[in-house]
Amino acid sequence: MFRLARYLKDFKINVTIGPLCKFTEAVFELIVPLVMAKIIDVGIANGDTDYIWRHGLILVLLAVLGLSCALVCQYMASKASQGVGTALRRDLYAHINTLSHKELDKIGTPALVTRISNDVNQVQTAVAMLIRLVVRAPFLVIGATVMSFTISPKLSLIFLGAMVFIVCVMVPIMKATVKLFKKQQRSLDGVSRITRENLTGVRVVRAFSRQEHEKERFEETAEEYRKFAVKAGRINALLNPAIFIAVNVAYLLIVYFGAGFVENGIDGMTQGNVIALINYMTQISLALVVVANLVTIFTKAAASSARINEIFDTIPSVKGAESAPKQDPNAPAVEFRNVEFSYIGGENALEKLSFSLKRGETLGIIGGTGSGKSTLVNLICRFYDCGSGEVLINGANVRDYPTHELRRLIGIVPQKAELLSGTLRDNMTLGRTDIPDEQIYKALEIAQAKEFTDNLDGGLNVRVLQGGKNFSGGQKQRLTIARALAQNPEIVILDDSSSALDYATDAKLRKALRRLGETDGVTAVIVSQRANSIMHADKIIVLDDGETVGIGTHAELLKSCEVYHEICATQYSEEELRKQEEGGL
After folding, report:
1. What beta strand segments (E) does 346-460 contain?
2. How many structural domains comprise the chain?
3. Which candidate among 175, 370, 433, 534 keeps its CA 20 to 30 Å from the CA of 207?
4. pLDDT at 365
5. What percent of the chain clears pLDDT 70, i.e. is strictly above it?
6. What percent of the chain stands above pLDDT 90?
7. What is the 8-class DSSP label of residue 262?
8. What pLDDT shows up at residue 541?
9. CB–CB of 181/300 below 8 Å?
């Protein structure tokens, strides 16, 4: 938790003035019992009404000053805690965006969402309590004890005994609850995961009428979270009874021995002094209750801080270079040299893959499910680093490119068509201000999306709902293709991103991409399950369980690659295949 203290450096004034105000308020509170003692011993004992009124006004003044200090401290604490929370979320979000797909796969989206929301909230609450109560509560305990010693050193031993007992109870409880709060936060990750899966897959759940099953899954995970929370709460609940037992026993002892001291004149004890001691004991009891609550808050914050620091300590496995490499205009646009890759704890997803693709050419990638098609294009974009071998773009290793420079060269359309909430223009530009509307319209036309976007009310300013739910599957795919093209990339990657398109639209799209390659030299990489989508490609790679079983044109592979022939045989008639083998596409 101390590692996150660096976020307080921008709020030095708040962290200084806030506790000082609380300290001042505590000083005023410590004066109150002394004034009350004077009112009892002098004003009430002598029947001096003026004395009582004068000292009563002093009590009111102390209350007003204390309230003013408390309000200032509250403002300082709120400003600092909200500021720290905002800065922490910003840095955590920025760091998460530096992580590669490897780290994101390992940690998981639900865990990251929980840490950037719930865990940061816990730290934010701890900062507010740090400014408001961490100085005040201990000072009241210590100050009240010291003040009691000035009244009666002998009776003050009761105070010390009560505090020693409370500390002995508090320390083991705090140690026990830290572990439980960590487990509780981890179980919250599970709740977030199931909630996210159900909300994103709500149509699937309802289509198969599995609402009850999903409710049971959620309840099971929520029950685990509840068990940890209840167990931690039960242990933590021992604090308040322990404090009140110690305090009430101390009350009895103060009254019992204090009465004897007053009767026998020991330590010059008076009735007002006994009341003052009881008031100090009350202040100590209230402060200790606050300390008990602070223990809970800081225990939770410590657990959350450890989880946040775990993210900060995660070093991205993919880091961009500082400066752009020298590119060779005569080198292939994309080249793989003996590339091998495997996911965490798995076998090789790609085995010794080698090929090259010239500028303006189109590469088709086909193969069965799990054959490594998406893995291949992910290595081009450097979402992952290959285990061995080299991936080159324009003659330079992708590891030598700054990340933003590499991604500027590539426009990728992922398998799942994702649109962001906002306007259509926002989705096309993704925050870039250097993309004119003419470039967007050109991209929409190439992607065969202009035919329906022209009919939208508002044009590029039309609202896109979360996830693009106001567009059909085919429309979303065409818009994501247009988004990639609008970035004006040198390499366009379509990762099985035309599966929702009809054959006519798919054919128009491929024709437009070929024309773009011929005129602008844009290199296209098309991943597809449909042989029809890649049959006109300059080069086709056939993958089978991570291995390259064929590279060539459509006609060549039909004759030389058994796997490719089998794929095509499921999609074409024997007569069509025979014509294609003869070169009649």
Report:
1. 348-357, 362-367, 388-393, 396-397, 410-413, 422-423
2. 2
3. 370
4. 93
5. 99
6. 23
7. H
8. 93
9. yes
Q: Does residue 323 fall inside a structural domain?
A: no
CATH of the domain at 459: 3.40.50.300
For residues 439 and 573, give the distance between their C-alpha atoms in angstroms, rounded to a whole number: 41
State how beta strands 388-393 and 334-342 pair: antiparallel
C-alpha pair distances (Å), 114 with each of 107, 120, 178, 300, 569: 11, 9, 18, 14, 49
Q: If you search the block for the tokens 């657990």, which residue do you land on? A: 303
Q: Is residue 321 part of a domain?
A: no
Asked if 467 and 514 sit in the same domain, the reply is yes
Count the neighbouring beta carbons within 10 Å of the beta carbon of residue 54.
Answer: 12
Arithmetic mean of pLDDT, 454-475: 86
pTM: 0.74
Residue whose entry in the numeric block shows the structure tokens 């775990």: 310
**Angle, helix 271-312 to helix 49-98, in steps of 10 degrees:** 10
pLDDT at position 546 over 80: yes
Instruction: Look at residue 585 and tell me whether its pLDDT is greater than 70.
Output: no
What residue numbers bound the domain in which 439 lies?
Answer: 334-581
Residue 61 belongs to a domain with what CATH number?
1.20.1560.10
pLDDT at 16 over 80: yes
Residue 171 sits at the vertex; the CA angle it makes with 170 and 176, to the nearest 5 degrees, is 100
Show the tokens assigned to 474.
Answer: 């085919």
Q: How far apart are the C-alpha atoms of 88 and 98, rounded to whole Å?
A: 15
Helix, strand and coil in the chain, % to nearest 5: 70, 10, 20
H/E segment holding residue 344 = none
Q: Does the structure show a pLDDT above 70 at 38?
A: yes
- In sequence order, which ranges of 265-357 are alpha helices (DSSP H)? 271-312
